[in-house]
Specification:
The chain is mostly helical and about 270 residues long. α4 packs across α7. The radius of gyration is 18 Å and the shape is globular. It starts with a helix and ends in a 10-residue tail after the last helix.
């Protein structure tokens, strides 16, 4: 789709700047004194992942949707759906699939080794929302390509899904304060920071709750929802016990996390 990269960059930058300012003005938890160093590592991972995708994938999900549009392949062309319904359903199906993908990355040990780099962040802010190991990003992209080929959603719905997913991930990891009534209202539809923070608890039970990235209802539907942490949001411990050393904030060590055994972690 024409101008896809530009649109995604605009939304990414606007979301990042807005959340960064919000975090500075109204944080939910105490600021991380070393967040500049963390940001260099977290955003460095994004740069590595972006280069890897451009090198290894000749097409990305939106372009694949463009290429297969009108060829009769996939689920949606076989259903006589109005364009608006198809657009909305495409976003919902893709988002539900990412919810189950997220659960799978927690359940399979080989996938968890990749995903644990995301959970190793001991302080959450909007940069945590884009901090995923490049190998996890490559697997997720391959999964999304398969989904697009299977259901053949419109290119517009794929682009909207990608933008929503990226912005929502930064939002629900952000260190921002929302009044309790606002949080309750928003999490009827969207995953809020207070809702997703529970997922980053060091407690293994809490870590396996609240898997949703964008829409809050998947966790309720599939019985993985937890309303509040056992401890307070301000005092709960975040991250993984295995990777609390300062060195795991640097880009080389972040990239090495999937390959580090428990004995060699400290």
């Amino acid at each position: 789709m024409e101008h896809e990269a530009t649109l995604r960059l605009i939304f990414f930058a606007a979301t990042a700047v807005s959340l960064g300012l919000w975090e500075a003005k109204s944080p939910r938890r105490r600021h991380d004194p070393g967040r500049t160093y963390r940001w260099i590592g977290n955003l460095g991972v994004v740069a590595v992942s972006t280069v890897a995708m451009r090198v290894l994938f000749p097409v990305l999900p939106v372009l694949l949707a463009v290429k297969i549009q009108g060829q009769g392949f996939g689920l949606f062309p076989a259903l006589p759906l109005p364009h608006v319904i198809e657009f909305i359903l495409g976003i919902l199906l893709l988002d539900a699939a990412i919810y189950f993908q997220h659960r799978l990355f927690h359940q399979w040990s080989s996938l968890w080794r990749l995903h644990r780099m995301h959970h190793a962040d001991t302080t959450l802010d909007f940069t945590t929302g884009v901090r995923f190991h490049p190998l996890e990003i490559l697997l997720s992209t391959a999964f999304k390509l398969a989904l697009v080929a299977l259901i053949a959603p419109s290119p517009g719905s794929v682009l909207a899904f990608e933008i929503i997913l990226n912005s929502a991930a930064m939002f629900n990891h952000a260190n921002i304060f929302l009044p309790a009534p606002v949080d309750r209202m928003l999490r009827m539809f969207l995953v809020t920071p207070d809702m997703h923070r529970i997922h980053h608890s060091t407690d293994r039970v809490e870590m396996n709750r609240n898997f949703g990235f964008s829409f809050a209802w998947w966790d309720r539907i599939f019985s993985t929802y937890k309303d509040q942490p056992d401890e307070s949001h301000e005092s709960m411990l975040l991250g993984l016990h295995l990777f609390r050393a300062e060195k795991y904030r640097s880009l080389p060590w972040l990239l090495a996390i999937p390959f580090i055994s428990r004995k060699k972690a400290n």
